[in-house]
Predict the structure.
Amino acid sequence: MKVYKALIAFCVAGALSSPLQATARDTTIKLSLSEALSMARENNYTIKAARSKVDQAEARIVQSRQSYLPKVTLSETLMVTNDPGAALVFKLQQKSLLNSDFEAYKMTHPDVINDFNTSIQVMQPVYNADAAIGRRLAVTSKKAQELMTVRTGESVGLQVTRVYYGLILAKKNIDAVEQSIRTMQSHSSEAARGYSAGLLPKSDKLSTDVRLSELLEQKMMLLDEIKNATDALKVMLRLDSGVTLVPTGDLVIDTLLPAESDKAVSENRADLKALETWRHVAILQEDMIRASKRPRLNAFLQTNLHSNNIFSGGSSWVLGMNMQWNIYDGMATAGRIQEAKAQEREAMYNYDAAKSGSIAEIEKSKRLLKTARARIDVAQKSLEDAKVSLDYIGAQFKTGMAMTFELLMREQAHTYAKIRLNQAKYDYCMAKSELAYYRGD
């Protein structure tokens, strides 16, 4: 009986938990544009990858500390030999040499000897000019990478904005088409009654059916656009496929166009500052290569423990200075300097190209913005006229005073005007976003 009750409790718990899991998968999220942009900054894979590059640059700064911090090495070496010379040296190092070991037979026929050598070596940089410049290079590289990460976030933000507005556009177009479908269904019913009464030819009735089919096909295509935009937005925001997105924003149109800026491109635009910083990195790279031709000076301290049995025996230490000077390396350094100069020129050209391209993109966005604003006024007037014309012809059609082709022409013009207006508003919002993006606002 207890087993039976436990089985019932388990089934009830499973039944209760299943709807909760389904609800978690099929969540509906209402999302404004600012919320979508914030979510992208937190979750987007491209932005996370860019931040990982900053972490890599930080790791290279940590590595550059070797230019002034000591290096400590511990080693343990075991050797077993009966070599006469090595045996004598090992006994000296182990401080176990006896007078009897100098007998001729023992010196030429020594016993097998073990030598455990425990060594600790400390290397302290004193003067390494190239390593010091390398640290400055690592710090500058991190700054450039941070700026590029900022620009990556702005680029992802523009992509999210484009998809978000595209989703709103598709929904608005579906509303327009659905309204036209309802209108055409009403007129199609009128045409069917007229055909049944012998007032309309069959071709007129079929014409209304054909137009209704066109609108239904257009609706199906728009539904696919909504699904595509929703899936793209989910990928950018790292949302589960079961989540339903409901945009709460709209295609907002300013009363006045954005004010003209005195400067075409902001001096603080992240990617341009990054390219300028990469040029400084190339200059530091050349300086570091030149500095590698100077002498290097390092101090060292080494202690050794030699024993026949590990960790026992004789100990010794050595303190000294080491100087290395690469006087000639077969033109390798000269070639690296030449390469660094070419990299510096490349960075300069990339900066100039990016700035020139940005000026062109800004002018293009400004033209698109002005044109879209004018198109909105034209499309709004066209929509109003098309609505009046459709209402008039629709009333005439119901009384038999208008031909079917006149009705279809007016309905097509009205639907087209609504879609044109939606498209113009979308183009305005995107042109405004792109203008801010290229300016670096």
Summary: The chain has one domain: 26-439. Residues 1-24 have pLDDT under 50 and may be disordered.
